[in-house]
Amino acid sequence: MPDVAVVMEPIAEAPRVSVGSMVRDYLALTKPTICLLVLITGAAGLVWQGEFSHRPVDFLLVMLGLFLTAGSANALNQYLERDRDKLMKRTAKRRPLPMGRIKPFHALVFATAIGVAGTAIFAVVYTWFSAFLALGTILFYAFFYTMYLKPRTAQNIVIGGAAGAMGPVIAWAAVTGIDGMTWVPWAMFAIIFLWTPPHFWALALCLQEDYKANPLPMMPNVAGELSTLRQMVVYTIALIGVSLSLVWAEAGLVYLVGAVIFGGLFLWKSILSLQRQERSQYWGMFGFSIVYLFGLFIAMMVDVAYRIPIL
Q1: What is the pLDDT of residue 12?
Q2: Of 1, 44, 94, which is closest to residue 301 (Cα–Cα)?
Q3: Distance (Å, whole) CA 114 – CA 121
């Protein structure tokens, strides 16, 4: 009987994942850019309130609580939308869950853990009111917005924008509790709330094909480009009006100049988008909307540090 040569093929090893790559994947679950916006707006609330401005440990701990709770809401959103994300070019090859880099159960555990940790910081170290607001924001965004609003109504981002606007309110509540709340953090909330539709609809106008493939009832796909663009102009005008209301809260010249310049440029971008109806204009407005929010809230903080009376 002839000899038979048996070739033993080496068993393929599972690809090794570096610690750095794993950290980047879990950080991506938190949507770092959105978290950064939450932190900047929350920091403005703390600076304006003032009590923690000279208590860096408390200031940083509140920032940590905001990052953990915002990151939890965003991670839960990605966990719940993992199947939808596979259908969109923007997310299919950028987010760790549709790419298979993180197991869904692990993402759920991570999101829950950081949400509990962030809420505990507010509850144990600061006030129960701030913890209630933080937990409510997580539940509102992750479940009410993601599971109910987003697939059912074109007003999803308008109503859901309340979650992303809570940073200054939660930060202020961490310092003062419910008894020390004034209208100022709620004015900051209103700024972010009114900013969200023109910001997100500019992106939705650029990604209409993605949303048709998903499908989700985003405003451009439901009402059309022209109607969406007109609404964006209206929201931008309202946004500028609310931003200027902080002048009555003793805002100084630095903030006033910043609000007028950034607001004027944002309105100009929205009008150009309406007039030209070109994708390049939509991308330009989307990019500037991020600059606007950063610039306005940084102007708030600089204004507090170098308060120059308007008159």
Answers
A1: 42
A2: 44
A3: 11
Query: Which sequence spans correspond to the domains of the chain?
Result: 24-181, 183-311
CATH architecture entry for 183-311: Up-down Bundle (1.20)
Predicted pLDDT of residue 226: 95
Q: What is the mean pLDDT of each run of 10 residues along the chain (311 residues)?
A: 41 59 90 93 95 93 97 94 82 86 93 96 96 96 90 89 94 95 95 96 88 80 92 97 91 93 96 93 94 95 87 68
CA–CA separation, 42 vs 60, rounded Å? 11
| Predicted TM-score (pTM) of this structure | 0.89
254, 263 Cβ separation under 8 angstroms: no
Instruction: Give pLDDT, residue 17.
Output: 62
Angle among Cα 267, 38, 26 to the nearest 5 degrees reads 125
Nearest alpha-carbon partner for 85 in 105, 75, 99, 71: 99
Non-local (6+) Cβ contacts of 106 within 8 A are none
Q: What is the C-alpha separation between 145 and 165, in angstroms, rounded?
A: 14
Name the architecture of domain 24-181. Answer: Orthogonal Bundle (1.10)
DSSP track, 99-147? TTSS-HHHHHHHHHHHHHHHHHIIIIIS-HHHHHHHHHHHHIIIIIIII
